[in-house]
């Protein structure tokens, strides 16, 4: 289908209804700022070159929460909820969902939806006095129309949205530190998903926090999955009172519950799904730790928003800063970046066999 054709079908009411955008929505807004589209005709085929910001849809529903859908010109998409600033869907150009969402997930505040990429801030797990994984994932974020600039490469050729979280009076009672948390979520034409978090101390005193992009990857079968890039690292085992161990295996595979924080990890990690013949590549910056979590059978049964057998279809691999909390002095800002891409495993076996050696790709 030509680019123009696919664009028109994207705008049609049936496409909007198919994407579920009109259901229960108070309004739908399309943002096409600074879009430059060139359509080239060559040998009877049409191709599109999309130079600038691509299509971003914003939908707001009646209970005050909303979603933003990012579209790539080649058909990939990402959906971000204002509830939690949580990425709730990431699809490739064939429409395949790459993130896990539980069939029992609840999409209503105040709790984060089980799946996607909830943000753990300012606390990870129960390492502190706040609610599990901190409050950011449970709050309503706003769209930031005028964020401080990022590097031009963070915008060029991408569809993106900027979100903002500031503490409420209630948040300040349990965590008395004023901050601005800016989140940029973007999608490249090839469907690479990026998240950039900028957290600024606007308080008169220093504060410390921990952080994780809890990333629920969708996998064919957990027994067919392995992680490369964490071998030989030290980790804290949440199942053994955070005792420190050293990883011994060649790669990480799964046959029981896992809940670990790998320390001082390389900036590129690969999650290989043999059955699907695809590999997720996780690139990160500013995030020294990697959490690996799968609840397995017993814990799955204990979670109300998670199916008994669903542990087989998911794996959390989170870029994180946990062991050494980040400290910001007044006026200082911290940045943590995550970039997710997916490649066929045939490509991976050639290029990603040893992530520590060959995946030294700097984030743009
Ligand atoms: O159910 P959640 O609050 O999302 O937490 C899910 C899991 O996250 C972490 O990995 C914790 O160490 C686990 O103890 C917890 O069960």
From TrEMBL:
<dbReference type="GO" id="GO:0047938">
    <property type="term" value="F:glucose-6-phosphate 1-epimerase activity"/>
</dbReference>
<dbReference type="InterPro" id="IPR014718">
    <property type="entry name" value="GH-type_carb-bd"/>
</dbReference>
<dbReference type="GO" id="GO:0005975">
    <property type="term" value="P:carbohydrate metabolic process"/>
</dbReference>
<dbReference type="InterPro" id="IPR011013">
    <property type="entry name" value="Gal_mutarotase_sf_dom"/>
</dbReference>
<protein>
    <recommendedName>
        <fullName>glucose-6-phosphate 1-epimerase</fullName>
        <ecNumber>5.1.3.15</ecNumber>
    </recommendedName>
</protein>
<dbReference type="GO" id="GO:0005737">
    <property type="term" value="C:cytoplasm"/>
</dbReference>
<dbReference type="GO" id="GO:0030246">
    <property type="term" value="F:carbohydrate binding"/>
</dbReference>
<comment type="similarity">
    <text>Belongs to the glucose-6-phosphate 1-epimerase family.</text>
</comment>
<dbReference type="InterPro" id="IPR025532">
    <property type="entry name" value="G6P_1-epimerase"/>
</dbReference>
<dbReference type="Pfam" id="PF01263">
    <property type="entry name" value="Aldose_epim"/>
</dbReference>
<dbReference type="InterPro" id="IPR008183">
    <property type="entry name" value="Aldose_1/G6P_1-epimerase"/>
</dbReference>
<keyword id="KW-0413">Isomerase</keyword>
């Amino acid at each position: 289908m030509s680019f123009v054709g696919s664009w028109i079908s994207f705008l049609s009411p049936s496409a909007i209804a198919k994407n579920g955008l009109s259901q229960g929505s108070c309004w739908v807004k399309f943002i096409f700022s600074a879009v430059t589209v060139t359509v080239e005709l060559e040998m009877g085929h049409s191709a599109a070159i999309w130079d600038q910001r691509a299509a971003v849809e914003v939908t707001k529903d009646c209970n005050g929460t909303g979603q933003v859908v990012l579209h790539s010109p080649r058909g990939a998409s990402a959906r971000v909820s204002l509830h939690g600033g949580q990425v709730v869907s990431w699809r490739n150009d064939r429409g395949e969902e790459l993130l896990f969402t539980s069939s029992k997930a609840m999409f209503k505040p105040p709790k984060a939806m089980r799946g996607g990429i909830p943000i753990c801030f300012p606390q990870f797990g129960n390492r502190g006095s706040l609610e599990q994984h901190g409050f950011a994932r449970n709050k309503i974020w706003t769209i930031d129309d005028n964020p401080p600039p990022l590097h031009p490469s963070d915008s060029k050729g991408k569809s993106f949205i900027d979100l903002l979280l500031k503490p409420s009076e209630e948040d300040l009672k349990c965590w008395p530190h004023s901050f601005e948390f800016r989140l940029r979520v973007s999608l490249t034409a090839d469907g690479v998903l990026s998240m950039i978090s900028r957290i600024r101390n606007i308080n008169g005193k220093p504060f410390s926090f921990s952080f994780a992009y809890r990333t629920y990857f969708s996998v064919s079968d957990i027994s067919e999955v392995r992680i490369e890039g964490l071998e030989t690292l030290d980790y804290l085992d949440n199942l053994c009172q955070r005792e420190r161990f050293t990883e011994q295996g060649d790669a990480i595979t799964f046959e029981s519950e896992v809940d670990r924080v790998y320390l001082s990890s390389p900036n590129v990690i690969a999650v290989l799904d043999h059955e699907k013949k695809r590999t997720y590549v996780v690139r990160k910056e500013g995030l020294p730790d990697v959490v690996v979590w799968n609840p397995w059978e017993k814990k799955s049964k204990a979670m109300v928003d998670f199916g008994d057998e669903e542990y087989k279809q998911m794996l959390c691999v989170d870029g994180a800063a946990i062991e050494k909390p980040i400290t910001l002095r007044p006026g200082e800002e911290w940045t943590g970046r995550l970039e997710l891409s997916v490649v066929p495993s045939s490509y991976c076996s050639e290029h990603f066999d040893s992530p520590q050696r060959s995946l030294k790709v700097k984030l743009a």
